[in-house]
Amino acid sequence: MGVGPGQRLIVVSSTWAARSLFGGAAEPAADDLLPWLLSRLSAELPADEYRTVAVLHPNIWYGHGPGQVRAWLDNARRAGLDTIDPLDGWHQALIAADCVLGDHSSVTYYAASLGLPVPLGAFPQQDLDPLSPVAALGRTAPRLVRRGSLRAQIEDTVTAHDPARYKELAEQTSSAPGESAALLRRLFYGLMDLPEPEGHPALLDPLPLPPYLPARRTAPVRVLAGGIGTDPPEVGVVRYSVVGGGPDPSEAPDLRCDSAHTVVDEETRETGRLRVADIVVRYAAEDDPRLGPPAAWTAEALGRYPYCGLVAYVDGPDRCVVRTRAGDLVRLTAAAGPDGRADLCDPAAYASALHAWLTSARDLAGAVPAITVRTGGTAHRVAVRPLGRGTP
Fold it and tell me: How far apart are CA 57 and CA 61, in angstroms?
């Protein structure tokens, strides 16, 4: 799912009911919680420190239709939220999750059974049998509230969470963990009054590896840069998606930064923002015949967007090619992790770091051969390789 070291995966889970998280007939205290929740996910959670996905009950999709659901989620999806297939992908999402924001859905209950933090966005206790295991979850799990910071509530819940908190709920999920295949086959053959096959153990297929699905943000991204150091070269960046006319994160009183700029994906719906963007970014393969090579697109893009200071062509999960307004063409490549795996941070963050470096009265030579880009508590070692100069 494109979650790298230093990131938390946040899963939003909703069942199909009038008073569910996705319902719309919430209790007065939680009125309109979902629109608030979706807007705050992008406004408060830094893009490089959190990854958000939603697991919605199949009846939500079938009852309202995929087009309507996507329309309701449009702003959040443009800000980086992805929806997970409710039949094939939710198991893997729960296994990978760091926190599940849910309601009285079975998926939320399974998350608690796995020992995950599960703050509840909606929970109609009056709709449930008070003796049911799900009702017990509602009496045990913390509640999300609109007052205060969503990020603070998530972080407090994760930090204070004790996996043993839901031990009794986990014990009610299954009395024989890992034995379902053998027990069910025995039952089915017994109902048919047939002996079980000898020499053939009852086995289940493992969950398939989910597709690589990095977050894609076509909404404008506001980038705060600070902590610039020269020995060795280093820049810290914090990136937020800005959608639906939400507050600009750079105006938040608890954030300190040396500079701020805006990055816009060339495939944005808000095409007017491309004219005033500080950085324009394009995601495509290096050999895409429609756009590449990167050197050609970056030169053309600077001509199309005369007011931006830098353009970036992201052609891999850990690399991009940028061209500055001065005409410098530069390849940025993140060093692999200690295990040899590619750095999964969005390479547009590296382009933002270089932009902040150059606009702070420092030259490109000072960032060569490498610069450290910090996102939250994670340091990304990024190679800076000049590819030459040219006239945009």
Answer: 7
DSSP type of residue 312: E
Cα–Cα distances in angstroms (integers) from residue 113 to residues 71, 109, 247, 327, in the given order: 32, 6, 37, 56
CB 118 within 8 A of CB 112: yes
Q: Is the dihedral of CA 370, 373, 378, 380 positive or negative?
A: negative
Helix (H) or strand (E) holding 386: strand 378-389
Q: Are 99 and 8 in contact, with CB atoms under 8 Å apart?
A: yes
What is the DSSP secondary-structure string of 317-356?
TTEEEEEETT-EEEEEEEPP-TTSPPP-S-THHHHHHHHH
**Which tokens is 314 given?**
């992201």
Please write the tens of the pLDDT for every residue from 179-225.
999 999 999 999 999 999 999 999 999 999 888 888 999 999 999 99
For residue 45, which amino acid is it?
L
- Helices 150-160 and 33-44 cross at an angle (nearest 10°) of 80
Burial 320-352 (b: 16+ CB within 10 A, else e): bbbbbeeebbbbbbbeeeeeeeebbbbbbbbbb
Q: What is the pLDDT of residues 95-150, one digit of tens each?
A: 999 999 999 999 999 999 999 999 998 888 888 889 898 999 999 999 988 887 88
* Torsion 104-105-111-116 (CA) sign: negative
Strand ranges in 211-366 using DSSP code E only, listed in sequence order: 221-230, 233-241, 259-265, 279-283, 310-316, 319-324, 328-334
Radius of gyration of the chain (CA): 24
Query: What are the structure tokens assigned to 341, written together?
Result: 């795996």
Peptide bond before residue 306 is cis, with ω within 30 degrees of 0: no
Tell me the three state secondary structure of residue 217.
coil
- Dihedral of alpha carbons 103, 105, 106, 111, sign: negative
